[in-house]
UniProtKB/TrEMBL annotation:
Lineage, top ranks: Eukaryota, Fungi, Dikarya, Basidiomycota, Agaricomycotina
Gene3D superfamilies: alpha/beta hydrolase (3.40.50.1820)
Localization annotation: Cytoplasm
Pfam families in alphabetical order: Abhydrolase_1
GO CC term (a single one): cytoplasm
Annotated catalytic residues: 107 (nucleophile), 264, 292 (proton donor)
Any GO BP annotation: proteolysis
Name assigned to this protein: Proline iminopeptidase
Keywords: Aminopeptidase, Cytoplasm, Hydrolase, Protease
EC supergroup of this enzyme: hydrolase
């Protein structure tokens, strides 16, 4: 990854009567524009996200999605759907005076990248995606019900602790009332437990520092509430919509590189493989010694290689 850099411009963009987005620009002012779509949903951006791109070639655009990071109001679920976010990306592009840009996204960011590209294929130069997630019911069931729990039993036990045993037939649904409770203690306990589960499982080798991030109640509250909101609503799309032939046909001409950790249990490789089957033109790299995180060495190396190769397009 490239050395850390600071943005040369930050701003706020009002996208609705409720929501205002934080965005930042870094790298080369007149460079090749690329937009970074963060994960979660609800995760927000991180300064290290700038380092996937050559700052001498790219105009790097980072922004926090509705309710996330420095965008306001924090943790808001109102007017917060996949398609609201797709419209926001377009509003930001227009606001910045960009005609076409590269799109980079991992995990939920890959979901949003595909949804955006399928909605606005004429505005996307290339796609660089990591940890493919299409929000199918089978994917949610694996991570939140019966799959990852077999690999991380001790973390799973902590994750389900806030949920009464009688309600554990649908963990995502059972978390919903707690994450939306008016009682701060109930809501924040649930948010920390929800977030800790994902932090526990995101790397091939569990990173205690990443797990400790769940203790940040403000960040966990936004992350957990927004994720759960999207998941109980099936991403506000048809099950498997992003993989449907008529949707893939809209973006088949766009160069796309996918980097997928072999041992990613958050977004298992089966989804990246399903994408490759319906879109054989993509370049799919399966990293043999990586989990879900973009920060793992094999994954980050291939992501940077992809952005370097696309810098001239």
């Amino acid at each position: 990854m490239y050395p850390p850099i600071e943005p040369y411009e930050t701003g706020k963009l009002k996208v609705s009567d409720i929501h205002t987005l934080y965005y930042e620009l870094s790298g080369k002012k007149d460079g090749n524009p690329i937009v970074f779509l963060h994960g979660g949903p609800g995760g927000g951006t991180d300064p290290l996200d700038r380092s996937f791109f050559d700052p001498s070639k790219y105009k790097i655009v980072l922004f926090d999605q509705r309710g996330s990071g420095n965008s306001t109001p924090t943790a808001s679920l109102e007017e917060n759907t996949t398609w609201d976010l797709v419209k926001d990306i377009e509003k930001l592009r227009e606001h910045l005076g960009i005609d076409k840009w590269h799109v980079f996204g991992g995990s939920w960011g890959s979901t949003l990248s595909l949804a955006y590209a399928q909605s606005h294929p004429d505005r996307v130069k290339t796609l660089v995606l990591r940890g493919i997630f299409t929000l199918r019911k089978s994917e949610l069931r694996f991570f939140y019900q019966d799959g990852a729990s077999h690999i991380f039993p001790e973390a799973w036990e902590e994750f389900i602790a806030p949920i009464p045993e009688a309600e554990r037939g649908d963990i995502v649904l059972a978390y919903h009332p707690q994450l939306n409770s008016e009682d701060d203690e109930t809501r924040l306990r649930a948010a920390r437990a929800w977030t800790k589960w994902e932090m526990w499982t995101s790397k091939l080798h569990v990173d205690p520092k990443q797990v400790a991030e769940a203790d940040d109640s403000e960040w966990s509250n936004a992350f957990a509430r927004i994720e759960n909101h999207y998941f109980v609503n099936n991403g506000f799309m048809r099950d498997g919509q992003l993989l449907e032939k008529q949707e893939i046909d809209k973006i088949r001409h766009i160069p796309c590189v996918v980097v997928q950790g072999r041992y990613d249990v958050v977004c298992p490789a089966t989804t990246a493989y399903a994408l490759k089957k319906v879109w054989p033109e993509i370049t799919l790299h399966i990293v043999p010694d990586a989990g879900h995180s973009s920060r793992e060495p094999g994954t980050s190396k291939l992501l940077v290689k992809a952005t370097d190769e696309f810098a001239h397009i």
